[in-house]
Amino acid sequence: MEEQNLEVKLKQMLKEEKIQLWNPPFSDDESSLHHMQALSERFAPLLRLQVQKVGGALEAIRLQAVTRGKGNKTYRETGVATLELLLPRGCRKDAKTKSHLETRLDVLVQEVMDRIGEEFGLKYIKLILNGKTLSVDQPLDQQGVKNHSKMMVLKVSDADWKLHLSEEEEMKKNQNESLQRTQKGFQILSERDGSEDSSPFLEIADQRGNPLKIPPEEKKALILAMGFHEKGRSLMKKKQFDNALCHLLQADQQFSRCGSSLLASVDNFSVLQLDVVWCYRALEALSCLDDGRSRLQRAEDGFLRCYGERQQRLLMIKGNTGREEVLFLRLYLLQSLLSYIEGNDAQARQQLSKVEALYSRLCLDSDKMAQLLSLGFTEREARLGLRACEGDLQQAAVHISNQRQEREELKQRERKRRSRRSEVITTLTELGYSRRDAARALQHADGDVDRAYAILLDSTGSAQTSRDDTEGSIEQLLYLGFQRDVSEAALRMTGGDVQSAAQLLLDQQGVLVEPSPEEPSTSSSTSTEDSDLVNEVLEDISRHEEDYLDLTLEEESELITTMKGYLSRGHTHPV
Question: Which of 66, 114, 244, 534 pairs as cysteine with 236 (C-beta 3.0–4.6 A)?
Fold first, then answer.
């Protein structure tokens, strides 16, 4: 990252002076070495760096420009693209120069991987573009690879790699299946409305735990989005960042189907943006810089809308803001990292100072943690409680106890609500309706018994009208001389259209074979599979509503130390 930081600064200086290193006198000129040396000697004092280091960076920039120019010409004339390879450490032939690969973009990724492996002596690798692993069995251009694209080459150790390509495909298949199973499981849950007493279903609640009224289609998209997000977070905890990123990007896609007013009132979408960029960092996907910057901006804007300019809204809702501060710590830390990579040291230091101030407040006293644990509180409760109360042990203990009581009261209210709902459903079933129909009517009536009864009466009238219409259609077909059983079958197959049914019977000469319904065993098998899927995806949903705020800050601490090291080596002036 230090090299990239210096190169960005030098490019800005060159741009300001309108110096083009790919043109004479810096390239293709007898005096080019002399002019490059003079430029290095002039820029080095401004950056407070050694002339040799600045000269090496300038030469790298010059070579990049020359290579890019030649690559553009080659691509225009032959269709052969030039790709920049970000190789693993220790695999570069020359640390100061970038590695490139010329290839057509309509070839399979596997072919490119074979060439890279042979040229650089790499046995097992993955290719990453914008934080996404490229599929080996698809062409480059179908996966977003363009001329001059930067692709990360990830080296996978022999011990971690399954020895055959078939096993690699198995891993890919498992990842795809994971995405599909997650989607199907939450799709099932998103379509449930609580009309079946025995089936688990999901409700969207506000920050106080009260159910929100959301249009059905938007609710489905939100449940799918939150489901993919939860699965992605679960994989992040296991350090499976590649697979996690796939699920997080699926969540991002589902969130785009939700209304902007809904997204503005909850912090889920902002937290997702933060998690995506954290995965980019973990995957060292610096080629995702532009996307990362825009995602962090969306996250920051979302937190401001949701929490208030100075978190006043959050203070009003929850009574404190300490727990949410871990999100801002991670936000500022990632902003500092991106600023450094972009060559803006001053902004990187400014952001890092905010991070360190937050970290000192959020880093917990181990003795206080131990005391809270000895009182019977969980590690998560202790962490969140101390942060909510700014490290005050007594206040934290009271706060945790109050939260436990609030959660228990919420559960009691929910039990009473469900018990009351069950009683109302029973009352409606005593009037002759099925429990399923009664529960659905009550759901559509928002719990109003009278409205639910009216809905059931209307549906009964409609059903009777439908039966009368069907019987009338059958009578017409009987009048034409067809048998009742085949008349009924023909009407079922044509959606109740008498003319179409009559034509069908005439075509088949009154002999009709209706497609057989599914066997009971198949239906039972599907039901069991659905139940397994639902239970599987529910395992990824944390039972604690503030799980996403429960960060140990170990990864953050490591990155803070790394950033301080980068920024302390050369106290250069910002360009």
Answer: 244
